[in-house]
Write a structure and sequence with these properties.
heterotrimer; A alpha+beta; B mainly alpha; C mainly alpha; A: OB fold (Dihydrolipoamide Acetyltransferase, E2P); six-stranded mixed sheet; five-stranded antiparallel sheet
Chain lengths: ~375, ~270, ~290
């Protein structure tokens, strides 16, 4: 049972707070993702777990052992933590062959020659690189180097894998292929993995659970589905999903016993289920959120529809992305390529009322 | 930038003129070293010897043999010591972040720029108190000590170019500080060792001031001082002096010939991409 | 952290060595300069700044300082100019660039003792190649005593040193010129600049930082260069015509055993060098942060 428990982790670099009061509970065998834009602190957190950085405050428990705690003067060095790490630039030892690279962690731990050979060969088989063992890193392609880096991590059968944007340097097609392979590998080995990325598609695709960070602060921890369907604040809502969620500012008002949002361009009456949840809400500024695929376009006015003008059309194979403007706001809607709509046309956006989101304008928190 | 023909001719004329001016001293040095005393007096320096002879070379070697061996000894040893010390210092200063590492670096850096006149008197006093005055050991100690700052600087700058992720990978792989140096950094250090080694060898071999101040006696006389002494005497005529100068120049030329291409390779390579 | 301890242990011997041989020694020298030590027996009775007063009243000090300043004013610019000129010549896509470059660099790689011996030989009024060649090409009236003539000896030294250092400045400028992106040169050519004006208005102005780096190195040498002058002229002829501060320091200390006086010389020299080096180091570390 290898869990990773992080409590109240804080790390400052001079004036900048890289990680602020981070609490995470990573389960055994989980493929856990730290997601966020650059500078959000995810790599810093990872390096703290590895023991390569000493935090200012907080505790880190690996497999029920306290490995980091500045308050108690505990800082187990990375060499003793039984974690393995894969870096963004792979960090392969350039003067060693692939074999020697993968063998290194075993050699350092003084394993016997026989054990080392067995381990390296098995790992190479697993990753499909047995024929590369005699080559040096500079003779390998990006994808091959990536596998060697993985091999070096796997060969010592560590308790935890840490990966810092391992796919970022690969070209797009390779990235997609590799992330599937990574997930399959994880299913096979079952090792608890903490994976850092800024690519939300990647996170959604392979994560068991995803922690979204912004400016060092944890925004939300959920399964990919939950993150997508029920983002807890504006940041998460806008970060997850591409094209991004459409957002409209408005005022929450009570008119004749019904809750409505005054969107300036139109009035939006809240559906019953939303009204139920917002019973206690006061009149305030809110943001209405709706995903591009939850919009249908109509030629005529319907109740709660928002009028907009078609600005531009993007035909992306399977989908048609319709860019619209209403007043000063822009929107994106996703429809079928066969949709009958032209640039310059005025249409009505009809929202799927089961799937709307409402956020408090001041705090950014989701109200429903 | 291609110029029309007449300009091109002017360009080459200038280049050759300057080349002539730069080579002239060496040419006359070589020709003179092969002339008999007669020749030196009767021929123009630029002219080759009428009856070439290796006499001056033999005579110069007689005088300079021990000094050359002295110089070879302390130069090689001081170079090796200062390079290795510079290497581990450079490693520690570039890869281990600790409070004050910048201060320590500055501490060394200033040592590179001081005019050595300011330390001559204390140096003499120190060496005599340690009983190392007029000794090869004293020269080794001196050149190593004053070589540490520049070697540290060179190695630190080189190691800074090696990605930190390589060190971090080694740490998570289980390697301790010394293992990281021995198995990761050192194998990648051939370029800085060559560059720093050649630099140190050249500057220690060419050193005159320390030799003059610390080892004028016969035991540890460096070749540089011996050569300068040749000039003062009336017994060594110009041809012997020139031959002496060539003997003295030989090791540095050999070093450049052998290691020169590694120097260039070292500058070209340095690609430490994993 | 264990790592930090290892770091400190590794650095300790070097810090001690450098601390002693550099910093403690500087302080020691200053102390000696304030003492009355004269002769072979060390004496540490502190007298105060008397030595310095003596120094500033000593005409030899001023002559030496003057020669150093001559070096700064003549040797430094001439080395920079010759080096710049050679660099521009070599930038002209000459096929044999490598050979010429090696030739021009050769003097810089050779020890001062050797080059001083060479120039002593060349400057010899009777058998030296310079006078003999002048005679042969009909310019015999230009023959002089060169370094044996007190009035022009220092200029002969400056010429020889320029010869020695031009290869170094050439290398620095060449690297600077080559670091200017080709696209910029092409844009300038399209704009109509070519040949001389191209260099004058586009390339040379961008060599400022290279020039500055070379400038500081040459300046420091102009102040502390000892080997060459010692071997070539020993400070003479005529006593002090080519004397410079490092030479005087050496003579006072080791020939005349006026240790305290020599220490004062050394301290003054040190201060002058620091005045140049420290602001430069400060400026360049500032620029690195930017």
């Amino acid at each position: 049972m290898v869990k990773v428990v992080i409590k109240n982790l804080t790390k400052k670099f001079g004036e900048v707070i890289a990680v602020k009061n981070l609490d995470l509970d990573i389960k055994d065998k989980e493929f856990f993702i730290l997601l966020g834009p650059s500078g959000c602190g995810k790599s810093t957190a990872l390096l703290c777990i590895a023991g390569l950085i000493k935090p200012d405050e907080g505790e880190i428990w690996l497999d029920n052992k306290l490995v980091t705690s500045p308050e108690h003067d505990v800082q187990v060095p990375p060499q003793e933590r039984e974690v393995a790490m894969v870096f963004q630039d792979y960090a392969l030892y350039p003067h060693m062959t692939v074999y020697q690279n993968i063998a290194f962690p075993l050699e350092v731990r003084k394993k016997s020659k026989g054990e080392i050979e067995k381990g390296v060969k098995a790992t190479a088989e697993l990753l499909g690189i047995p024929r590369l063992l005699d080559r040096k890193p500079k003779q390998l392609s990006g994808g091959q180097r990536q596998r060697v880096a993985l091999g070096r991590a796997i060969v010592r059968e560590p308790k935890i894998f840490l990966m810092d944007e391992p796919l970022a340097n690969l070209d797009a097609k390779l990235r997609v292929r590799m992330r599937i392979e990574l997930k399959k590998l994880h299913q096979k080995l079952g090792t608890t993995t903490v994976y850092v990325t800024h690519d939300q598609v990647e996170a959604m695709s392979i994560g068991d659970r995803v922690a979204v960070l912004k400016d060092g602060v944890l925004q939300q921890v959920s399964t990919p589905k939950e993150l997508y369907d029920a983002p807890r604040n504006i940041f998460v809502a806008g970060f997850i999903g591409s094209p991004a969620m459409n957002m409209l500012e408005g005022n929450l008002v009570k008119k004749n016993e019904t809750l409505m949002i005054d969107l300036e361009v139109s009035m939006f009456e809240l559906p019953t289920w939303a009204e139920e949840k917002m019973k206690e809400a006061k009149e305030s500024k809110v943001i209405l959120g709706f995903r591009p695929e939850h919009i249908s376009l109509a030629k005529k006015y319907q109740k709660n529809a928002i009028e907009a003008k078609v600005d531009m059309l993007e035909l992306i194979g399977r989908e048609l992305h319709v860019h619209l403007t209403a007043g000063e706001c822009s929107f994106v809607a996703i429809t079928m390529p066969t949709e009958d709509v032209k640039v310059g046309e005025n249409v009505w956006m009809v929202l799927d009322e089961e799937k709307i989101h409402i956020f408090d304008e001041k705090t950014g928190e989701a109200l429903i | 930038m291609k110029f029309p023909r007449p300009r091109r001719i002017l360009l080459y004329a200038l280049l050759i003129l300057f080349a002539f001016a730069f080579i002239l001293p060496f040419w006359t040095c070589i020709t003179t070293s092969l002339k008999t005393n007669q020749d030196v007096k009767s021929t123009v320096p630029v002219e080759p010897p009428t009856s070439p002879t290796l006499e001056p070379w033999m005579e110069a070697l007689n005088i300079m043999e021990k000094p050359l061996l002295n110089s070879l000894t302390f130069t090689l040893l001081a170079t090796i010591f200062s390079c290795f010390i510079g290497s581990i210092n450079g490693y520690v200063l570039s890869k281990i972040r600790f409070k004050g590492s910048d201060m320590v670096f500055l501490f060394f850096a200033i040592g590179i720029f001081i005019p050595y006149q300011i330390v001559l008197i204390p140096l003499v006093l120190t060496m005599s108190r340690l009983g190392l005055y007029n000794s090869i050991e004293g020269l080794i100690l001196t050149h190593t000590a004053y070589g540490i700052p520049v070697c540290t600087l060179l190695f630190r700058n080189f190691y800074k170019e090696i990605p930190d992720s390589l060190i971090m990978a080694a740490k998570t792989d289980g390697a301790g500080t010394w293992t990281i140096y021995r198995r990761i950094l050192l194998p990648l250090s051939s370029a800085p060792f060559v560059v720093t080694g050649v630099l140190q060898f050249t500057s220690i071999w060419n050193d005159f001031l320390f030799g003059l101040v610390l080892a004028r006696g016969t035991e540890a006389l460096p070749a540089s001082v011996a050569l300068a002494n040749l000039k003062g005497t009336t017994t060594a005529f110009w041809n012997v002096q020139m031959a002496g100068a060539l003997w003295y120049a030989l090791p540095v030329v050999v070093v450049y010939l052998i290691l020169g291409k590694y120097l260039i390779k070292g500058y070209m390579a340095g690609a430490v991409k994993g | 952290m264990k790592e930090n301890v290892i770091a400190l242990l590794v650095l300790l011997p070097s810090v001690l060595l450098v601390g002693y041989f550099v910093y403690v020694s500087i302080g020691w020298n200053v102390v000696v300069s304030l003492s009355d030590w004269k002769g072979l027996e060390p004496s540490y009775t502190i007298i105060g700044f008397g030595r310095y007063a003596e120094l500033f009243h000593d005409p030899v000090f001023w002559i030496s300082l003057k020669n150093n300043l001559l070096l700064i004013l003549l040797f430094v610019p001439s080395s920079l100019l010759v080096g710049l000129f050679l660099a521009i010549l070599l930038d002209m896509k000459v096929r044999e660039e490598g050979i010429f470059r090696t030739i021009y660099l050769l003097p810089f790689a050779i020890s001062f003792v050797i080059t001083a011996s060479l120039w002593a030989w060349m400057y010899d009024p009777e058998v030296g190649v310079i006078n003999i060649l002048l005679e042969k090409v009909g310019l015999g009236f230009l023959k002089t005593g060169w370094v044996s003539d007190p009035t022009i000896a220092i200029y002969c030294v400056i010429l020889a040193l320029t010869w020695q250092f031009s290869g170094y400045t050439m290398l620095i400028f060449l690297a600077g010129i080559r670091s200017i992106p080709e696209s910029q040169v092409m844009a300038a050519e399209v704009d109509g600049a070519y040949g001389f004006s191209l260099y004058r208005r586009i390339i040379i102005p961008q060599l400022k930082s290279s020039a500055l780096a070379a400038f500081v190195v040459l300046m420091v040498f102009a102040l502390k260069g000892f080997d060459f002058i010692y071997v070539l002229t020993g400070g003479g002829p005529g006593g002090w015509s080519t004397d410079v501060l490092p030479l005087e320091m050496f003579k006072e200390t080791f020939s005349k055993t006026h240790f305290a006086y020599g220490a004062a010389y050394a301290t003054v020299l040190f201060m002058i060098v620091m005045i140049i080096v420290v602001p430069y180091l400060y400026m360049s570390s500032r620029r690195k942060e930017q």
